[in-house]
Amino acid sequence: MTSRLLALWRRLPTPIRRSAHVAAGVPRASLDALDQALAAHQGRRAERAALARARKGAGPRGLSPALPVTIIGFHGAVHGLGEGARMLARGFADMGLPVRALDLSASVGFAAEIPPAFPPPDPGERGVTISHINPPELLRWVRDTEGRLLQGRRHVGYWAWELEEVPSDWLPAFDFVDEVWTPSAFAADAIRRVAPKRVRVAPAPYPLYLNPRPQADRTRFGLPHDQVVVLMAFDLRSTAQRKNPRAALRAFQQATARATRPAMLVCKIVGADLYPETFQALAADVAGDPSIRLLTDNLSAQDMAALTASSDIVLSLHRSEGYGLLLAEAIWLGKPTLATGWSSNVEFMDPASSRLVDYRLVPVEGDGVIYRAGRWADADVTDAAEKLARLISDDAWRDALAAATARNGHVSFNRDAWIAMTRALAALA
């Protein structure tokens, strides 16, 4: 054992040897600790080698834009990231450009439930590649493919982030992109702070104008026709801490206690099967309250749009958003929105059609899997309840807000503005 211990010790890099502490009298524990340190070192070395191979396979950056446009992402997944990739693909097609799509759903364990709308790229095609995946998934993909699918192509990373500072483990991904687009100025500011000077970072919101506008159909969803229906929706894979549904539940309960007419809250939840304890805690919070309905059915983008169209108000007391897709979709569908007044959603929630909830900025805590540092917003539940109570009670005011959504001038809702923005960014004819 002593000889093996010495052999392992000599194989460790000097910094690790300096920091290691071998306790006398416990050789097994010491050996295990050295085994772990060596495995970690070897893992980091293998990671660096894999990324080096990927950088070589991807070739040099700085190529000029060309056609076709290939969108890489979770095209088949019933997921916000999947819908974002599909919208970008539809947007480029609406510009009259040839579009390809590469679906990575299976590579991260997402079920591919939506058939592809565009063909995959041919091996010999070049053009522009837009990877609608964040750096952790991008780095995994380029390692797996050794960067081959980026060779000879201009590469735009389309990244979304919800806080003011991006994680340090994103930094190696800049080696594989020519530029970065984001769905909001808020996200662009965060990424720009750490981007190399050669990498342009620009906001490029989604083309919401392409989304259909279905008619309300409360019967289909079993919703009451004589009550105000409030909708909140979130994906537990995006973390309950960030989406903050319990605050919204409390705000609704306080609002209905003071509102002058009845209301129902529909809480659409994705990922309940993946996070059963979180879901059960939410269910316990509202047990016995007939005015709150938890909906866990799998809904397509079209079904979700129909559910939103069947609602009167869309509510979100999130702690931070990188875009706020549901809120933007609600505005496009003519629905008043009430949400935390911080992060990306304030870029399209105009005062004429939306109401922002007061908040205070607090340190990020309790969500170490994805969000490990920085700050985000803690919505004022009392303020939210007061504003929601008025929205529920005042039909004329709510109707005025709904009518004002048609005048929202954000680029997401304007075809000409979106196409002009995208042509300028992509430099494509």
From TrEMBL:
Q: Which domain of life is it from?
A: Bacteria
Transferase in keyword set: yes
Keyword Transferase present in the record's keywords: the answer is yes
Q: Which UniProt keywords apply?
A: Transferase
Care to name a GO molecular-function term for this sequence?
transferase activity
Q: Which PANTHER family match?
A: PUTATIVE-RELATED (PTHR46656:SF3)
**Protein name (Swiss-Prot/TrEMBL):** Glycosyl transferase family 1
